[in-house]
Amino acid sequence: VFGAATYRTVGTRLQETQTRVVEISTEQVEQRVAHALLRLANQTGRKTDSGIEIDFPISRQDIAEMTGTTLHTVSRLLSKWEDNGIIVSGRQKVTVTDAHRLVVLAENRDKR
User: Fold this and answer.
1) pTM of the model
2) Cα dihedral sign for 33, 105, 46, 85?
3) What distance lies between CA 48 and its chain's CA centroid?
4) 52 half-sphere exposure, CB direction, 13 A CA radius
5) Domains delineated in the chain
6) 84-102, pLDDT tens digit by residue?
7) Distance CA 3, CA 104 (A)
């Protein structure tokens, strides 16, 4: 039982790593950041009155490192998305307020 669980965990981690490599090599920055936020919301999200809160401290620098971009770029994107009502971000906290629009941004493969 332990061995099977270990193999499942390793397999899941490998899939996640492969997904990130594909995203970094084929997607625009906006798509990568949107995918990262959706992944975090899916894995640790907690429903609140204002949306889906990523339920652990995460900085803009953390998001930049996860997506292979710069802190400046992540800050610019998150500020734009906040102005557009897609997310609310605070000190080491992000809440997805419009998950549908974030999915649309993440899946927009024609945008170059």
Assistant:
1) 0.78
2) positive
3) 18
4) 15
5) 2-107 (1.10.10.10)
6) 999 999 989 999 999 999 9
7) 39
